[in-house]
Amino acid sequence: MTTLDRRSALPLWAQLADDLRAKAAAGEFHDRLPTEDELTARYGVSRNTVREALRRLREDGIIERTRGRGTFLAKVDIEQPLHGHYSLARSIQDQGLAEHSEVRVLDLRPAGPAAETLQLVPDAPVVHIERLRFAGDEPLALDRSWLPAGLTEQLLDADLRHGSLYDALLERCGLRVTGGWERITPTIPTAAERRDLRLRRPHASFAIERLTRSGDQPIEWRRSLVRGDRYRFATQWP
Length: 238
Hints:
Distance between the termini: 53 Å
Structural class: alpha+beta
Number of helices: 8
Radius of gyration: 22 Å
Strand content: 25-35%
Largest sheet: 6 strands, antiparallel
Shape: elongated
């Protein structure tokens, strides 16, 4: 049982709400919260106290209740300001969510279709990286990157499960991103991509193509597929 301070001037429902908020932020509940009966037993409080705490958390956008299924943590949309170069890892962290990646591919291969964009000959070696990017416990994006091996081969020994690839480029290869371009296109993902991203119909996704440079040197060509139900772009004028 988790004990609340009954001598505190702070009402029990407020103490309970604060404790549930902290546990949710720490990832203790993953997705679904305990039932009202479970919370009543765990904290030794009345059902009315539990309901008031949950009501306040719903008002704050922390949780949402689905009839017949229970109470779940509310989904947080990732909003990406359009003001130039950005990092998805930092965007996720800025929304208060834990980020990590499942590294599916990290190898050396001929440049092939990436050669022209990276200004390489077709059989030049590139470092190829495929990552499934997570925001909290849910996948958000599928990234595929190609980088000139002559500049970035040190990435083959890097741990890319957390953080930004651009931080790894700076730390491992001494390459700082100074410019580039990006194209964003709405698209309908394939069945396999829907499974990877756990994307329900009828939601579409964003196909993002990006080229980054360090000075005049192309250093990464990236193709990303991002969930359209969890991600949005925003811009602001003076």
